Amino acid sequence: MPMNPERPTLTTRQGHPVSDNQSLRSVGERGPATLENYQFIEKITHFDRERIPERVVHARGTGAHGWFEPYGKIGNEPAARYTRAKVLTQTGMRTPVFLRFSTVIGARESPESKRDPRGFAIKFKTVDGNWDLVGNNLKVFFIRDAIKFPDMIHAFKPDPVTNREEPWRFYDFIANHPESLHMVTWVKSPWGIPANYRQMEGSGVNTYKLVNDQGVAHLVKFHFQPRQGVRNLTSQQAAEIQARDVGHATRDLYDAIERGDFPEWEMCVQVMSDDAHEELDFDPLDDTKRWPEDQFPLLPVGRLVLDRNPDNVFAETEQSAFGTGVLVDGIDFSDDKMLQGRTLSYSDTQRYRVGPNYLQLPINAPQEKARAHTNQQSGQMAYYVDPTGANKHVNYEPSMVAGLREAPKPAREYHQWVEGHLGRYQTTRTVDDYRQAGDRYRSFEPWERDDLVANLGADLRECPEPIRLRMVWHFWHCDEDYGRRVAEAAGVDLQQALQLPPLEGKPAPHQRRDGPTYTSGRKEEPDRQAQTQDEMASAK
């Protein structure tokens, strides 16, 4: 790959030069994004339309129906202390759900044994309308600003010239984004290849808010812990499975449900007060970071069970459409920049991919108790007419004679004070860009570290020297043993790598040599490798 020092200036499609391609415009460093983000809107809406007809990301997937039942508590306290959302507070009420699992980068027919984050998207059909929680199996992500999402996916997808996924493209992007090191450490370890969909964790990834009857908000993260335990694969184990079956995870989920072995997860949340938490070395709104579980424990909320396979894969699984902006009263947005960007992007993608009336499809429509009544009409493939009231002449609001009316307002509405200078900002709290990746490396079992280092070494040997050196520099600043072992595996002179200066425009990294600040969640599964090997032997 030749290096070209004379490169054209990046512009919008209107020809406007782009001086900052790293950050959304927001009100202050932590404030909400604004609707006049033209550069981002042009970029993300074009990105949403790059593929026909399959999803741009999460194309390979399978799904199942089931239900969610809340405990009525968050930890040891009544759930109503934190939220007025009925789906989380009303004990004995089972909410229908549809859960779609997926891989992220691969095409629709790609192997499910491939190293890749897994999608974990849930549609809750609550009595107050739909709630979509669109997450992954891992609790963090590669980036913290949505304006970088098209760049990230382009770097991870096949080269537009060779049509191959080239390691140098992946690491070329990562090398310029130290916040990605945490996610890379997860994905390149065995955690990057779950053994199946039933035995993997789920996470909402984004930071949301819970709002109670008094209008008081708490920041929240949603997590799902599998009752079946967690199992992951090494690269060698995944290759053996792929040689026999490219859809092993779909087969495993379908067969388990058909034989009555219904997979189950416990929903847990982490909560913290709704403020900046300056005492932390990271911003709680940063999706590349985990909230330390010794400070913000996982609190049980309810149980999720899958008990029915789709009647038709296309009609249900492929046409199921999720959006992070689909929330119910009592669950609200935070100023998480990834969440704010996804909220535009995901629903925009569905309108393009499935059509403007995708919410009329049974798989996406809310349950009968929360049937939709809108003044929206017509559009491609409309097959029933709103409004559904007695007088269909009035398709506007308000009216003195007929039509729809506004719902009663909550007794205490949630109001957020927003103040700041409008501009483009990057977070200044970057210490944990390296610290949490190092913590994660040290928390792995020896066989997991061995597999992680082998995978990184094999990838980096295919990369140009500047990328190899910079990645070793990054890993060494996460943990000295981590960097040394990757250097040896990649054939890199460690001392040459350590002579590199910090990235331009990035603060110098800080290291820490103590142990992890969060638990690995493995107390009930002491040897996942042995379990997975037993599973593979029984499947042969």
TrEMBL record:
Residues 1-31, 499-540 are annotated as: Disordered. CDD domains: catalase_clade_1. Residues 9-25, 529-540 have a biased composition (Polar residues). Residues 11-405 form the Catalase core domain. One of its GO terms (cellular component) is cytoplasm. The keyword Transcription does not apply. Belongs to the catalase family. Residues 511-528 have a biased composition (Basic and acidic residues). One of its GO terms (molecular function) is catalase activity. Decomposes hydrogen peroxide into water and oxygen; serves to protect cells from the toxic effects of hydrogen peroxide. The active site is at H58, N136. It comes from the Bacteria. Its EC number is 1.11.1.6. Heme binds at Y346. Keywords: Heme, Hydrogen peroxide, Iron, Metal-binding, Oxidoreductase, Peroxidase. The gene is katE. Its cofactor is heme. This is Catalase. SUPFAM superfamilies: Heme-dependent catalase-like. Gene3D superfamilies: Catalase core domain (2.40.180.10). One of its GO terms (biological process) is response to hydrogen peroxide. It comes from Ramlibacter tataouinensis (strain ATCC BAA-407 / DSM 14655 / LMG 21543 / TTB310).
